[in-house]
């Protein structure tokens, strides 16, 4: 009897029935409920455990699928961090003249354009040729001529100071299709060492931020009715071009403006500066006298500031109409950093799946391997049986029939030693 039992244990699973393989899995599985189904003492008890197992399995699959759907929706969360940034880089500032055309330069260009296009200037208003001229120069990529039509930085900039440091030479030229010549301070494209908040002059006392003083030569504007006067100012990231047409602040002379509190709000690698605009009366009588003295001294030294011929006689009137001062500064050294990151990571997904399988069925990765082993055995058995049927002879001999009877009797003996389903 012992010999027969040992032979049954060593019998290959291929020779066992599907039922025997499945019953063996149920009785040895670590998954909760399966052993109770296999060892049920009655039919009603087995039905109870089957229903309980299916109920738990259904809820487990529901929560696992819900976790997967939530993960695939890629939810995000935003963390806010407030920190001191004394080495924060000052943003780039782009300045454009709202009126891009000088009278003396534009008249000469219009006459040359009319001659080239064979237009009779005595029968047409030159103002109607301004837009076709600009379009023609852009189409022919005549960059130098476009630059020559507008105001140079030296034509309008009186003074530039950053934390007490003279910054008149730290501007980069660019060309706008609407505003013509534009000039950018602290741009990463041309400056190796950008200005930071901590860059201070050794002689500066209580001077912070970027301060620029402009003389707006309205008398030199080409008389076009649909173009504004003044300046357009844009604050942007140091490594990007300014969208001055969309984001620019339009500043008029005879009123001072103060931009403060640029808050850096990074989104991925993009920085947005939110500016707060305020206006102050400028200049005061004392400031006016100082600027007048400086401009007249520069004029005697062949300064390139475009001043009218009667500026000395009517300096008070011209300064009231044309003097503009811009101050761009920061209110504190705090930077608010918003970090957007995934709310559910792949680790969280697997943790959720593991928790659901554990609480409903007590299923672990080893339990999954056990179930995979059963499927493997059944698939291999099915493949072997199919091969045997295809290779079997049509007229089996007596020895083959006797061998099959012996196999059946051995299988019956082995199944008698297993737990009944």
TrEMBL record:
<keyword id="KW-1133">Transmembrane helix</keyword>
<feature type="region of interest" description="Disordered">
    <location>
        <begin position="402"/>
        <end position="421"/>
    </location>
</feature>
<keyword id="KW-0813">Transport</keyword>
<keyword id="KW-0739">Sodium transport</keyword>
<keyword id="KW-0812">Transmembrane</keyword>
<dbReference type="Pfam" id="PF00858">
    <property type="entry name" value="ASC"/>
</dbReference>
<keyword id="KW-0894">Sodium channel</keyword>
<keyword id="KW-0915">Sodium</keyword>
<comment type="similarity">
    <text>Belongs to the amiloride-sensitive sodium channel (TC 1.A.6) family.</text>
</comment>
<keyword id="KW-0407">Ion channel</keyword>
<dbReference type="InterPro" id="IPR001873">
    <property type="entry name" value="ENaC"/>
</dbReference>
<dbReference type="GO" id="GO:0005886">
    <property type="term" value="C:plasma membrane"/>
</dbReference>
<keyword id="KW-0472">Membrane</keyword>
<dbReference type="GO" id="GO:0015280">
    <property type="term" value="F:ligand-gated sodium channel activity"/>
</dbReference>
<protein>
    <submittedName>
        <fullName>Uncharacterized protein</fullName>
    </submittedName>
</protein>
<feature type="transmembrane region" description="Helical">
    <location>
        <begin position="47"/>
        <end position="72"/>
    </location>
</feature>
<keyword id="KW-0406">Ion transport</keyword>
